[in-house]
Structure formats: structure tokens, C-alpha cells
Write a structure and sequence with these properties.
The structure is a homodimer.
Chain A (H helix, E strand, L loop, with lengths): L3 H4 L14 H10 L6 E5 L12 E2 L9 E2 L3 E4 L13 E8 L14 E5 L11 E4 L3 E4 L2 E4 L9 E2 L10 E3 L7 H9 L4 E5 L3 E7 L3 E2 L10 E2 L2 H11 L3 E8 L3 H14 L2 E5 L4 H14 L1 E5 L3 E2 L5 E5 L2 E6 L3 H19 L9 E6 L3 E2 L5 E9 L2 E4 L8 H4 L3 E5 L5 E2 L4 E6 L1
Parallel strand pairs in A: 5-6, 13-16, 13-17, 14-15, 17-21, 19-24, 22-25
Antiparallel strand pairs in A: 1-12, 2-11, 3-10, 4-6, 4-7, 5-9, 8-9, 18-20, 20-21, 22-28, 23-27, 24-25, 24-26, 26-28
Chain lengths: 413, 413
């Protein structure tokens, strides 16, 4: 254990740091993120939200004994000798109606018709499926014995009063919304969506709708960060493009940290630009990380200003997207109070061999074709590598790469 | 090929059909679904939307030669003999500024400083990374030769004018929104979100916020269908609970088919109820499928009324969710114009053995714990099996099940 493990990240007045491994970067990002406040919302709007309260069943569900099949409610003792060749005759008292308890009681020698989901009438202890019966007027021929409880959903078989159904931090899925409805919980208390300030810097940048002149490029990162954040359940707020003015950068970062739960600054692609971002964050607050040992994505900055995490991303959009997928996702989830981030991974074989060029941990974009993953070649900053890839594979630091046919794990994106 | 393969599904005045395999059900659902109209939206709102036009690069991107590194723009011929021990000296003409073309030309014996992303000045044909240089006043010592084009992003290296970037039917991801921004496409034409009418039937149903009396249960399916549809990019519209009135059911289905792109009716859990739904759809239109050979989920109905697909789902919410995940998802994607549905699958080993009870194709809910999938036991209609499962595995019709340690594919949900 290093000293900083216990004392938390240390700030420095210098903005040049050793690069840190990605696990350390994620740990630091999580350690400086504060959960957002809570709000109570209708469950219809709950998909993807994170519970800030545990969900506990208040009553037994379904709360009464229900039939699991269409059939006849019977007394097991009456029909223990029933068989196809020698059925037992029971007198049918009538039919259970859905949604209302029957006021009749099944007594020895009698039975009642019951539809799936109907309430088991008093006296009965099992349901014979209609397939194993025959009706002759009011007499029902039962051709199969039951065991006590057969085809009955117990009154607490779905949920028992005081059962913990979902813990704090659970990210709600569509099926969970159904579960909440089933226990009558139509309002739910969740973490507020974190508000993420987005600042793009770069003198070469023009708005995406503009026609760039020679030397200029369209500003892409605010789109990537906006849509990525929204998909992760955050509210993105754009603070525009800062072209070349350090004072404007400082003012904008400062304003964004006052108005947001976290701020993401995407730097220009040159080292100088990145250093200005780090310097500004350092002067307004603290810088903990300047450089992560991943390729692409190395020039990532992690700092905070007044308890608000501030992340500096590389300028190349494709590198930015890599760091969004590997680091910023943890920031967003930590702000939302989620202990972990669900990512989808697929084990698959490499179609060709790939070599890692660096000592750093290397992430390679791949396309999945049939049963194989093919590397998407091209400089890591190119947008086409994002368009045409299905996910990334990791080549650990020190490894030389993979041979064709090696099994790899693709993190799908 | 069966006859119906070419002639399309045939309607019948009888509502009792042989069960069909799930592949056939999916084929029929897709064959009766009409793509929604199109609309043009800002790309910021494009995540998850389906392209109704191909996206083609209108110009070369980046459109000019850019440096891929911080370094010096050089003429390769000048420095072919450069080495650490015997550097070549070049005279530095100045620095390329980001965002504007330099009006200087690199001539033999000269070079220019260039930041990553800067426009390559006229005359230069490569960039030497700054790490392989040393500056002495206006003289730059170059310690490594280049090859022509080294560290240069070609003017069409990201996208070439008229390159097809995304085909019709592509479902946009966050990274795709960045790609669209990079080519200046800030508005995009996509399929409209399909409007899905949702009708719940069942005399035993009470609204989720009510306290059920004995025999009653809370209405859950409209929540499942609403949130599931929304996550799949549709607009859910609830038509309420129809308790016990066939005329009301008929009127409501009829109204919903006039107002929506598709209608989903969740039946009660008893066979009778399901038959009434099938009968009503059949009288207003045509029924193609009444029963799919899957467990759970068998009593699914597929029909159409006036060209609007109408799906009847089983009443048990857990079965409903299964059919949403296996069948309705294809309806929603077909309406959106997506040729296929992305599902996430994970190969994993079974922690325990499982047996299939039926001849039908059987779907089993499983929880993933570490490297193993554990079956979530309990009657298939129970909500707790949804709450506590991570996905489903398929046991093909005729198979007996899996042994502990067998590899299975989990469809994550």
C-alpha cells in the first residue's frame, strides 16, 4: 500500500506527474465524486435511475393463495388414488371468479373450477390441471392425484413482507419497474441526474455546422460527451468552445464548477493546450492525475475545484471517446451513487494477430465479424475507427499483443 | 419451404392454431410491421435512433494534411542520414499555428515547428516527433530520418468524399453522433419513434397504486410494456385496464389501432381471457399466430387490424417480459426500420444442472454470479424471477437441459 492509498490523492503545484495505471485513475475519480441529491419520481420515469433507498416488500405478494393453472381446486386427501383408468368423481360447487374470493368452501367430495390466477377457495389445498379432468354435468372426473400445495402460488411466494428486493445503488431496468408496480411502489426515490458541464478548447475548432477553412476542424467532443453523458443518465450542459483565451478558459471552468456536479474539459490535441488546461485546474483547485498509462488516452487530467471533479480529456475525439468509456463512465456512475458500471463484454477469437506498440496498456478498437474480432486499423485519433468498431480489447502493459485465434474479451460500445 | 413462406401468413376464422416455433413468430411479426415515417432531428437527439437515409461524407475529412504529433515539419530527403550520433541541422522558419495555414514554405534545409493537429506547411512531407529533435536557437537538430508521409494524417484519411459511412437502418450510438458532427451533419433524418398502444385486460386487476382486495392483483404489464418500449425507442401510450367487458375491449383495441403504429394487449392469465383477446383481434382483423412453442410465453397472439400489428401477450408479468424480450423487440425494431436487434449475450458455465420440463423450447432465467450462471428457480409467473435474474438461457425443444459446468449463452436483460 502506498501512502496515498490512505491519505487520498495529493495535489501538487507542479502539473507534470508520472502517468498512473488506469485502475488508479478510476479509484481517484471515484474517491473525489460526491453523490448527487435525491428526488422522488414516478416509476414510469425510473428506467436507468439509481435507487437511493432500499426497496422492501411492505406486504406479502400476491397476498393470497392463487391458482397457477386452469383447473379444479380440490382436497388432496380426496383424490390420492385417482388415475386415468380409475378416476375419482367430485361434485363441482361452481367456478371461482377472477378477482373476487369465493364464498363457497370446498368440502370432502367436492371441488370448484378455478382459472389461472384465481383465489384458492377455502377448504381446497391443491389444483388439478384441467387436462387431467373430465366434466360430466356437475360431476368432475379427476384422473391424477395431487400433492398438497400443487399448482398453488403461496400468498408470500413472490415477495414476503419485509423482503429486501433491491438494495441502495441498484440501477433500475424495465423489469424492475414492473416489480415495483407489483408491490404498489409507484413512486421511487433515486439519485438526481448529475449535471455535467462540457467545455471544448482548441483554436482550430469551429462549430460542427460551420464549413471549416483550411487548418480548422469541426468541434466534435462536445457532441460525444453530451450524448455519452445522457446515455449514462446525466444531464449535459455545454459551455461552448474556448478558442485561445486563458482568462476565458479560467472563467468558464470556474463558472461551470459552480453550476455543475462535474466538469469535463476536452483539450486541444497538442501538448501545450493540455498543459494550459492542467495549469488552470491546478490554479483553481487541485490536480491529482496528469497522464494515464493507456494508449490512446494518455493526456487525461483528473482534478477537482471546490469539491467538483474536473476531468481534462485528450483533444482527439477518438481518444476522448476511449477515456469516456474507460474513466468518465466511472465518474458518472459514482455521481449517481452506483457502486459499479455494467459493461457488456464478449469473448471472441482474434481474426488476425495484433501487436502492441507501447509499454503502456494498449486499447485496440475491433470490429466483430461472425465469430472473430478484427482490429480496426488507422491512427487512433481518426473518427472512422469509432464509426467502424464494435468495441475495444485491452492489451496489458508489457504484453506484445495477440496471435490470430487467441481468445480476447471485447468491451462492447 | 412451406406454402405460407411465400404467400404470407394466412388468417383463419378459427382462433385455435398449432403453436409455431419462435423463429416463425419473429418472421411473421417482422412481415406485418410497416416502417414508421421519417423526421429530421438535431444529432444531439439522435442516440438510439435509426437512420432512414444513408450517411455519406460530402467532403474529405479532415480536408487538409494534419500533423499527428507535436514535432517539426520536414522534407524527408533532407534528413535521410539523420541519427542520434550524427544529427542533421535544419533552420527553423517558425511555428505553425493551430487553426490557420502557414504562409511559409518549407524549403530544403529548413523546417517548421508544428503542434499535433496543425496543418502541414507547403513543401514539407513528414513530421519528426519532438522527442527526436533538439533545439539550439533557430537551429533544429534532427536525430532520426522520416519516411514520406510519416506522422501526417492525409486529407482524406478519416473519410473520403462520397464514402458511405452509415447505411440505412443503422442504429446511432454516441460515437456515431461524434462522427456525424465531424462531417458537419448536424441534422439527421431518422424513422419516427413508433407509437405503441398498450391495453391491459383482467377482471382481477387494480391500478398499481391501489391496495388490492383479496383475489385482486396490481396491474403490472402496462409498466413493463411502457418502460420496455421506451428503452427500445418507441413512444408508449396506455389505454388503461379493461376489466370484464368484451365491447369495451373491442372498442379500445379498435381505437388504439387507429391511433398507434402497433398495439400490445396483455391478456389475463387464464385461457378464457386469452381466447377473448384472440377472438376480438380476429373479428376486427386477422390472427396469424395463437401460441408460440416457448415456455414460458406460449399463449402469445400475433395478428393485425387494418395493417396495424396487434400482439396479445400472456397475463403473467414474468411471461409477458419474456415475450417482450424475444418477440415484441423485433416488432419495435421492424417499425423503426432496423434490420436486426442488438442483444447482449455472454458465454458462461452453468453452476448447477438444469432440466427442461417440456418438449417446447424452454427459456430459463439465470443469475450470473462470478464465472457461473445459476438458475433462478420459482414458477415462471413470479415477479421475483425477474428481479433476481440477469438474463435467460435457451434450452432447445427436445433437449433435456444442461449439466453443471456446461457452457451456455446467456441473453442479458
Amino acid at each position: 500500500m502506498s501512502k496515498s492509498e490512505n491519505s487520498g490523492p495529493n495535489a501538487s503545484s507542479e502539473y507534470y506527474f508520472d502517468v498512473v495505471p488506469i485502475e488508479e485513475a478510476v479509484r481517484i475519480v471515484r474517491s473525489i465524486s460526491h453523490q448527487t441529491g435525491t428526488e422522488t419520481i414516478p416509476i414510469d420515469d425510473g428506467d436507468g435511475r439509481t435507487l437511493s433507498e432500499p426497496v422492501v416488500a411492505l406486504t406479502d405478494i400476491p397476498g393470497f393463495e392463487r391458482s397457477w393453472r386452469d383447473g379444479y381446486a380440490v382436497i388432496t386427501d380426496d383424490i390420492h388414488s385417482a388415475s386415468e383408468s380409475s378416476p375419482i368423481n367430485l361434485s363441482c360447487l361452481g367456478a371461482v371468479r377472477m378477482g373476487t374470493p369465493s364464498d363457497l368452501t370446498v368440502t370432502p367430495g367436492t371441488c370448484m373450477y378455478i382459472p389461472t390466477g384465481g383465489q384458492i377457495p377455502a377448504g381446497a389445498d391443491a389444483v388439478v390441471m384441467v387436462e387431467y379432468t373430465e366434466r360430466l354435468g356437475n360431476t368432475i372426473l379427476i384422473k391424477k392425484p395431487t400433492i398438497v400445495g400443487e399448482n398453488i402460488i403461496r400468498r408470500d411466494e413472490d415477495f414476503k413482507a419485509s423482503d429486501l428486493i433491491y438494495p441502495v445503488g441498484w440501477i433500475l431496468r424495465p423489469q424492475d419497474i414492473g416489480v415495483l408496480a407489483s408491490i404498489g411502489k409507484t413512486q421511487i426515490t433515486v439519485r438526481k441526474k448529475p449535471v455535467i458541464g462540457i467545455i471544448s478548447t482548441g483554436v482550430e475548432l469551429v462549430p460542427a455546422e460551420a464549413i471549416p477553412r483550411p487548418g480548422e476542424v469541426r468541434e466534435v467532443n462536445s457532441y460525444l460527451i453530451t450524448v455519452f453523458s445522457r446515455r449514462q443518465g446525466a444531464i449535459p450542459v455545454r459551455y461552448g468552445i474556448i478558442r485561445d483565451n486563458p482568462d476565458e478558459l479560467r472563467e468558464t471552468i470556474s463558472r461551470a464548477t459552480r453550476e455543475c456536479d462535474a466538469v469535463v474539459v476536452s483539450g486541444g490535441s497538442s501538448k501545450d493546450r493540455n498543459d494550459i488546461t492542467a495549469k488552470t485546474i491546478g490554479e483553481l483547485g487541485e490536480v491529482f492525475v496528469h497522464g494515464i498509462s493507456i494508449a490512446p488516452g494518455k493526456p487525461t487530467i483528473i482534478g477537482k475545484i471546490q469539491d467538483v471533479p474536473v476531468i481534462g480529456l485528450p483533444g482527439h475525439p477518438a481518444s476522448t471517446f476511449m477515456v469516456l468509456s474507460l474513466v468518465v463512465i466511472h465518474l458518472l456512475q459514482a455521481l449517481k451513487g452506483s457502486p459499479c458500471q455494467k459493461t457488456y463484454k464478449q469473448k471472441i477469437r482474434m481474426a488476425t494477430s495484433v501487436q502492441s506498440e507501447q509499454g503502456r496498456e494498449h486499447y485496440l478498437r475491433v470490429r466483430i465479424e461472425g465469430d472473430y474480432a478484427t482490429p480496426v486499423l488507422g491512427k487512433s485519433g481518426l473518427m472512422n475507427t469509432l464509426a467502424w468498431s464494435d468495441g475495444i480489447i485491452r492489451i496489458p502493459a508489457g504484453d506484445e499483443g495477440y496471435e490470430a485465434g487467441d481468445e480476447v474479451e471485447v468491451m462492447l460500445w
